[in-house]
Design goal:
There is one protein chain. The chain is α/β, with parallel strands linked by helices. It contains nine helices and seven strands. Strands 1-7-6-2-5-3-4 form a seven-stranded mixed beta sheet, sandwiched between helices. Helix 3 crosses helix 4. The chain is globular, with a radius of gyration of 21 Å.
C-alpha cells in the first residue's frame, strides 16, 4: 500500500511537471525538477512518519519483513544519491542456510546501514547504541527490523541484550551484527575489543562472519565503500575456543585486511 501510494504520487508529480514544462521555458526545468524531487522526498518522509505511529515502541516485538524492505531500499536510494558506491567481496562465504553473528570494525555511523544494504540477501540486524532508537522515523523502523539497543554503562542490561541477540540467532529470527570496539573509531585504527561481544556466538552456537568496511576518498560526487568478508569462523571453532581467543583471532584477521591497500 505504501509503495502504491508513492508510485501514484510520483506519477502525479511527473504529470504536473510535464504540463508545467510545456508552459515554461527551458530555464525553469532544473528548478522545477529539483522542486518536484524535494516535494516527493518530503511526502515520502511524511508517509514513513505516519507509518511509525503503528509500529511497536518496545523491543522484542514481531520481526517485520515489510519494515526491513522499506529500510533497506530507502537507505540504498539515499546512499546512491549521496554518491556512495558499495564494493563488496567475499559474500559467498556467508552462510545461506542458517543465521550467524557478524562482527567487524566500526568506522562510521553509516556502517550498519551500509552493511545492511550490502547483505540484503540475509536478514541482518544490529546491536546498537540506545541513542539510535530515539531518532525520529528511523528508530521505530530499525526496532521493527529486530535491532537491539545495548547500554554498556549498565552491565546487567548489556548482558540481557547479549542473551536476546543470541536468542534471535538461535531461533533463526535473523542474523545479528555487533561491533566489538563498542564505538566507532575516528582515526581508523582499531580500538580495544570487548570480548563479551563474542558471547553471542557461544550462546547461540553459531558461526561468526568477519567483515571489514573502509571508505575511500570522494572523487567528485562519488565515494567508494569497500566491504570485505575475509573469514567465517565455523561453529566447531566457536565451540572449541574461549571468547578472548576468538576475539584475538578476529582482531588479527581484521588488522590484516585493513593493511591491504585501498584501491
Amino acid at each position: 500500500m505504501l509503495f502504491y501510494f508513492l508510485f501514484l504520487l510520483l506519477g502525479a508529480a511527473a504529470a504536473v511537471g510535464v504540463t508545467l514544462a510545456a508552459q515554461l521555458s527551458w530555464w525553469w526545468l532544473l528548478p522545477l525538477a529539483i522542486g518536484l524531487a524535494a516535494a516527493i522526498a518530503a511526502a515520502y518522509m511524511l508517509t514513513l512518519l505516519f507509518v511509525t505511529l503503528f509500529l511497536p515502541r518496545k523491543e522484542g516485538g514481531r520481526h517485520s519483513p515489510t519494515c526491513r524492505f522499506i529500510v533497506v531500499h530507502t537507505v540504498a536510494w539515499v546512499l546512491f544519491f549521496l554518491g556512495y558506491r558499495l564494493d563488496a567481496e567475499g559474500l559467498e562465504k556467508l552462510p545461506t542456510d542458517r543465521t550467524f553473528l557478524l562482527v567487524g570494525n566500526h568506522r562510521s555511523n553509516l556502517d550498519p546501514m551500509v552493511e545492511m544494504v550490502a547483505l540484503r540477501r540475509w536478514k541482518l540486524a544490529f546491536v546498537s547504541k540506545p541513542e539510535n532508537f530515539k531518532i525520529p522515523v528511523a528508530g521505530p523502523f530499525i526496532r521493527s527490523c529486530s535491532y537491539l539497543s545495548i547500554d554498556r554503562d549498565d552491565p546487567r542490561k548489556a548482558v540481557s541484550t547479549i542473551h536476546r541477540a543470541a536468542d534471535y540467532i538461535r531461533e533463526g529470527r535473523c542474523s545479528m551484527g555487533i561491533y566489538p570496539e563498542g564505538t566507532r573509531s575516528r582515526t581508523g585504527e582499531l580500538l580495544p575489543f570487548h570480548h563479551g561481544s563474542f558471547k553471542i556466538a557461544k550462546l547461540a552456537d553459531c558461526s561468526i562472519a568477519v567483515m571489514t568496511v573502509r571508505y575511500g576518498k570522494r572523487h567528485g560526487l562519488r565515494r567508494r565503500v569497500e566491504l570485505r568478508v575475509p573469514e567465517v569462523l565455523d561453529v566447531e571453532y566457536v565451540r572449541a575456543n574461549r571468547t578472548n581467543a576468538i576475539s584475538d583471532r578476529v582482531r588479527e584477521t581484521i588488522e590484516r585486511q585493513l593493511e591491504q591497500p585501498l584501491d
